[in-house]
Amino acid sequence: MVVQGPFSSVQIKLYLLAVLFFSANAVLTVILPLQSDAQGMGQGEIGLMMGSYMLTCMLFRPWAGQWLSRYGALAIMRILLLVHAVCLVLFAVTGTDSYLWLRALQGAVTAFFSMIMQLAMVTMLSAKDRAQGMSLYTLSTMIPQLFGPMAALFLWETGEPSLYLGVMIALSVTTWLTGFLAPLPAAPLGEGSYTFRDMLGSTAQLWRNRTLLVCSVVMLLASCMFGAVSTFLPLYMEKTGTGHAGYYLMLQGLVVVVCRFVLRKHIPSDGSWHTGLIAGLLLSAAAGSLLLSMMESLGALVYVSAVCNGLAVAFLYPTLVTYLSFVLPSRSRAVLLGLFISSYDLGFSSGGLFMGMLAQTISYSGMFTFCAWLGLSAFILVLMNKKRMSTSKAES
């Protein structure tokens, strides 16, 4: 295969495919909770439905890697996008009773899609361009946050089922055509990286590897906060009549995109543990949740929360995963990184599953206060392990 540059026409087509694919989720993440609430579903049920997306994504990710090591990426992608298209149309024409299994199916599709795209980037880019290409791909997955929530709220407020169906069909067709013509390698990709059995077996190493344990717990707690905001913010704002969820999510997405692009070269890549940066990001996330808990008394100042959360989303995950790529033992790095990635998936899904039940038991305000305590707990964990984490590079 001819090696491509990160800004080549081939790579730009893949970035476009990522934007189109994740645009659907940016719309559905906002509109599905609103529709479900209007049909009488409780916060716990909504959280279960929304959380099933990342949960199935986590469970299917290892199998996606195995399938790609046996079959060509192009063939799998074409079938995958057909399933994706059917899924989107069914969201528009079925009722809330079907949302749980459709959301789970969408998560499985996303697991395969993201694995194909990431392994394709590794295969098609030279070593010196790989980091920049992966950064641009990640950026492409976040661009839909700039317009998806606003589009979802427009569809919701318009209340036209035919318009909703038309948008889903348009996204389905354009994504499938772009994927059908995508310059993906036809040959098998990778070597299977890790299996589900490997991932389960590696959980025992969490207790033996303090570095991995601390990073995974921090990511689990932080992503739980991110998942709660993503799932319940539109409902919370609609019920309180404060703020506009579209503006909030667009501002948060803008912060993430700008930070990831403009400051991408400033993400630490020296293998050192940066306590101040990581602790600061966790405080930012905690402050964002705390501000949301006081939404009714803050008024327009609640949008400061979007900036706080955006900073944490932009930098926390890449900082931790880059650090781990240096300090984890090379012989088991793929499996252990897979376990760390699963902690993000599990945390994000828990933000819907468990925070929904909490909101139903107490209130949205109380739930976001609890999220702030999660961020503070992660902050304390980082400070308590400062010395141990700082010496991990030398020990590895």
Automatic annotation (TrEMBL):
Keywords: Membrane, Transmembrane, Transmembrane helix, Transport. It comes from the Bacteria. It comes from Paenibacillus mucilaginosus K02. It is found in: Cell membrane. InterPro entries: MFS, MFS_dom, MFS_Exporter, MFS_trans_sf. Residues 211-396 form the Major facilitator superfamily (MFS) profile domain. Pfam families: MFS_1. NCBIfam families: opine_export_Sa. One of its GO terms (cellular component) is plasma membrane. GO terms for molecular function: transmembrane transporter activity. It is a multi-pass membrane protein. PROSITE patterns: MFS. The chain crosses the membrane at residues 12-34, 46-64, 71-94, 100-122, 134-156, 162-190, 211-233, 245-263, 275-295, 301-328, 335-358, 364-384. This is MFS transporter.
